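Schema walk-through. Below, the input block comes first and the output block second. Nothing else is stored per chain. Lengths vary across the set, and this one has 368 residues.
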Amino acid sequence: MRKSIIFSIFKKEMLDLIRDKKTLFMMIVLPIIMYPLIFILFTSIMMMSLKNLSEKELPIAFNKQPNESVMAKILEGKEHEGKLKIVDVKDYNKALEEREITAYIEILEEKEQIYYKIYMNSSVDDSMESTGRIKDLLEEYKDELVKEKIEEEGLDVETVLSPIVYETVDLAKDTEKAGYLMGQILPLIFIMGILLGAVYPATDVMAGEKERGTLETLLTLPISNGELIIGKYMAVSLSAITSAILSVLSISLTLVFLLGNLKQANAIGLEEINFTELIFPLIVTLICICLFAMVVSAISMSVCSLAKNYKEAQSYISPIMFIIMIPSYASVLPSMELNKVNAAIPVVNISLLIKSVLSFNYDIYLAP
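--- output ---
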C-alpha cells in the first residue's frame, strides 16, 4: 500500500464532497443548526402549550346545582391555574362531542353519600385538563369533610389520617439525573446524525462515481483496488466523524441551554447541575460514536458499491438505515441495561453504552 496514492485519493474524494452542497448540508448545516432549532422549538412550544392550557378557562356542566362549598371552590379556582366556568346544556353527549363543554358532572345521592360521576373525552386536551381540576377540588372538598367528621368525634385529625409517616430520600445527584435524561434520547439522535453523515458521502463516492463515469478513469490509473477503497473509506469516515463531532457539540450546548431554562422555569426538579462532571461522559460518548461512524461508513460503502447509479444506491441504503435505526431505540427502553449479552448485539451495544456512560452507571467488566 502506497501512502501517497491513498492520500491523493482521499484528497480528491474530500474535494468532491466539499463541492457537493447536499453533503455539506447533511454533514455541517444539519447538526449545527437543525438539531438545536428542533430541540429549542419543540421544548418552547411544549412549555407554551402546557402553560396556556393550565391558565385557560374551561366550561363544564352539572346535572343539578352543586352545594355551596363545591360551587365556591369552582368559582374561586386555584392560584396560578385557569378557572372552571359552569354552563347549562341539554344534551351532555352532544355538548362534549361538539366541545361546547369539557366535562359533565352528574351528582347522585346514595344514602348518606354524594356520588359525583364525571363524563369527559380523553381524546381532547381541554377535557383532560378540566377533569384533573375537578378531581383536585373534589378531593380537597372530601378531605375537608373527613376532617370535620373526625373533629366532631373529638379525635386528633393528624393522628387518625396519618398514623404513619414516611419520607423518600433521593441520593442521586442532579448531574446524574441530567445525565439519565440525556442518556434516554441522545444515543438515538447521535446514531441518526452518524447515518446522515455517512450515507450521503458513501453514496456519492461509490454509486455517484459510477453514474458520472469517473470511476472507470480512476481504475485506469496505476493504483490497486485496496488503495482506492482505503482512500474512499477515509473520506467517508472523516465525513461521518465530522458530522458526529458537530452533533455532539451542538446538542451538548443545546441541552445545557435547555436544562438551564427548564431549571429556571421550575419545569424539572434539578437545582445544582455541575456540567463539568458531564465532560468525561461526553468525551467517552464522542469516542464511541466516532468508532461507530467508521463502522457505519464501511457498511454504507459496501452496500452502495452494489448500485449502478445514485438512485439505485438510495434504494439499497434505505433499508440499511432502518435496520440500524430500530436497534438504537434500546436506549429509550427503561429496563434495558448494558450487559454481556446485549454488548454483542450491533447498534444495541453502542446505544446502551452511551446511555450507561451518560447515566454514570457503567461497568467496565460488563457484569450482568
